[in-house]
Amino acid sequence: MLELMDAQTKPSAPRLPRFERHVQPCLAELLGTALFIFTGCLAVLEEPGGTGRLQPALAHGLALAATVAVLGDISGGHFNPAVSLAVWLLGGLHVTLLIPYWLCQLCGGVIGAGLAKAVAPSERFSNASGGAPGGPTAREQLPAVLGAEIVLSSFLLLVVCMGAVNGSTRTPLAPLCIGLTVTAAILAGGGVSGACMNPARAFGPALVANCWNYHWVYWVGPMLAALLVGGLVRLLLGDRATRLLLK
Known about the structure:
The protein is mostly helical. Helices cover 69% and strands 0% of the residues. The radius of gyration is 19 Å and the shape is globular.
């Protein structure tokens, strides 16, 4: 009875202002995506100097880890439409923010690619297609490229969902784990599909450089992976608060 009275008299947490609930998270997604994609594109445009895929892999992974660490408490640190979809499926993002997040991430991708174009030599920018992922050059390569994008994106999304969203497995090391996953995926799958794993990362350079060859692969692969991982965590791997079955 005392516990019930305490619960009734205990003041509820103050509701955040509209700016902090809606505007600030979208601004964080816009800024974080722009910085991440600017760094990633610039690493691809620079001369590797014998480092091969190591330079873009480290640049993408470190930039993502840093932006998630500093902006994650504001917006969740998605910077990827597929991540937002998976987090929404797990109940970690309100449905009213899903479309605004996607729009901010795509705009951030365009801004990041545009900044990379502004500071990089024009010849290098055009030769590298603006830093767009190196996709298939023939229709026969489509199954391998699409399959790689689905598997690599699933790996990344599983780390995000289990390391940053699921209550029982959430860890303060999530930003580092996410960055390392991106680095490993680029090192392993960069030669197969470009290891994009992010529609915003593909859209920004494609729009700025006007390079749309098989662009749809970099939407279908990560978004399918988001549905797969979201369903897997919701049904089987999530904790009791997240899991829908076998509670």
